[in-house]
Amino acid sequence: MRGWRMSELRFDGKVAVITGAGHGLGRSHALSLAERGAKVVVNDLGGTLDGTGASAGPAADVVELIRKNGGEAVASTDDVATPEGAKAIVQAAIDAFGRLDIVVNNAGILRDKSFGKMSVEAFDQVLAVHVRGSFLVSREAFPHLKEQGYGRIVNTSSPAGLFGSFGQANYSTAKMGLVGLTKTLGIEGARAGIKVNAIAPIAWTRMTESILPAEFEAKFTAEAVSALVTFLAHESCETSGEVFSVGAGRVARVFVAEGPGWSKDDHTVEDIRDNWEAIMAEQPYLTPTTLGQQTATSMKAML
Ligand code: NAD
Questions:
Q1: What is the ipTM of this complex?
Q2: Catalytic option among 11, 135, 171, 204
Q3: From 32, 48, 87, 109, mutation site for ligand 1 pocket: most ligand atoms within 8 A of C-beta
Q4: How far is the CA of 103 from the centre of ligand 1 (A)?
Q5: Beta carbons within 8 Å of 211's beta carbon, 6+ residues apart
Q6: pLDDT tens column, 3-13
Q7: Taking the mean position of all CA atoms in its chain, how far away is CA 94?
Q8: Whole-model pTM over 0.95
Q9: For ligand 1, is residue 43 a contact (CB within 6 Å)?
Q10: Three-state SS for 280?
Q11: pLDDT tens across 212-260, in order?
């Protein structure tokens, strides 16, 4: 890390796939990586916010802008949520640029409804784009990254998943699902030099312009989020399996912690009731980084 400190972070020779890069955050990530020398596959289905429709326009416009700025990019209008689409997205990188180093899983849709009114279709569609899409594109990319012993994957979670959000049971489930994917891919990619992290952003885009206060537009920029994504995509970033909240000027690690806990052999229902305060305690918390570490903590408490 130290050697990188003084210099601008560059991506010359690196190839990135960015899904959902025709609008909003993905567009901004694509411009940021291209400006720093990465060759970019700009993927976008070009549909509406709820995932209906399709258009080649948004991906083509971003590619044109990157080329106008002197960068290299190709467009893909494939659907991240289908195995064929995911395969085609990764293949576009190999065909155009001969390699793949970075995947930013960013494509997303919204189908908000209060829980009592949420249809099975609205649940399935949202999970399909966010979770299945990130799984499928990462799955296609993984063998390429593994073979070259290097890769960076950035997944897009959300504060709605980490902390809950009224009317977004489908979206929250999907976004917390991406935390699980990030942690396990981080573990499985470790030996091959593949670092996997997730962001939980807030930014002014078409997804949020109707819900965020007007004064957020100037401060909660997509560029502020892209600065973090660009760092997480760089070879100097050695962190893996982590989640970061990012919005306006602030970046923070969000971690899954477990309280110190309370333990007693053969505890009864009433024991649990009577020790609820200790069970709920947060300090001193632990931050296990694998299932094994967490299980070992429980075992230790019983010895
Ligand atoms: P956006 O609607 O501007 O961008 C999403 C893009 O994904 C669109 O261009 C859309 O066409 C594309 N897309 C949708 N389905 C696709 C599919 N099946 N295949 C390929 N492309 C598809 O919204 P955004 O705010 O830029 O969102 C980007 C990501 O950030 C999403 O995953 C979103 O959930 C997440 N996010 C955004 C915010 C925010 O504050 N804007 C907050 C938390 C999370």
A1: 0.99
A2: 171
A3: 109
A4: 15
A5: none
A6: 566 789 999 99
A7: 22
A8: yes
A9: yes
A10: helix
A11: 999 999 999 999 999 999 999 999 999 999 999 999 999 999 999 999 9
